[in-house]
Amino acid sequence: MAIDTVLLAVGPMDTVRAEDLAETVLEIAEPLEATVVIGHAFTETEYEEFREDLGLEARVEDVDPDAVATRRAPVGDLEERLTEAGVDCEIRGAIGDVGDEVVDLARSVDADRIVVGGRRRSPAEKAVLGSVSQDIILQAPCPVTYFRDVNVLD
Question: Where is the UspA domain (predicted)?
């Protein structure tokens, strides 16, 4: 199976591990000359919470998710790092249930691999709070590379 498109699914917690995620993606995409889609999904509530910080006037129903994702950390840093390495990349955003939106995004870009970061949680925390990474892994239409950052506890 050829890898032509890699979806790097990121969220706000990935700012602290952006460089490590970029390196992980480059290990896959660079030698295969694959395109990387940097995907950032967020809930309507998250959008409403940070839209003022980003200087956006539009309410969630009038927003272009791709434009918002472009302005959300760590997307810009990742795009810069991947572009500097000579990897073609694009940015895609989505609003809704994060796990479902990432899986839908993987389908829409015909991703051959998803790279997703995660954090350490106890089984009880996963049971109560859920795990977006786990949802993505279980629903993904392609193989998933899970980057576990043991230094991120929240």
Answer: 4-146
Per the CB < 8 A criterion, the answer to whether 43 and 96 are in contact is: yes
- Encode pLDDT of 10-22 as tens digits: 988 899 899 999 9
d(CA 116, CA 6): 11
Q: Which two tokens stand for residue 83?
A: 């572009």
- Which of 3.30.450.20, 3.30.70.3450, 3.30.530.20, 3.40.50.620 would CATH assign to domain 5-149? 3.40.50.620
For the chain, the first-to-last Cα distance in angstroms comes to 35
- Encoded amino acid at 19, one letter: E
Answer whether 39's CB lies under 8 Å from 50's CB.
Answer: no
Q: Give the span between the Cα atoms of 25 and 3, in whole angstroms.
A: 12
Paired strand residues for 17: none
Structure tokens at 136: 């993505």
pTM of the model: 0.89
Number of C-beta neighbours around residue 48 at 10 A = 12
Give the sheet arrangement for strand 144-149, strand by strand: 89-95, 35-42, 5-10, 113-119, 144-149
pLDDT at 154: 45
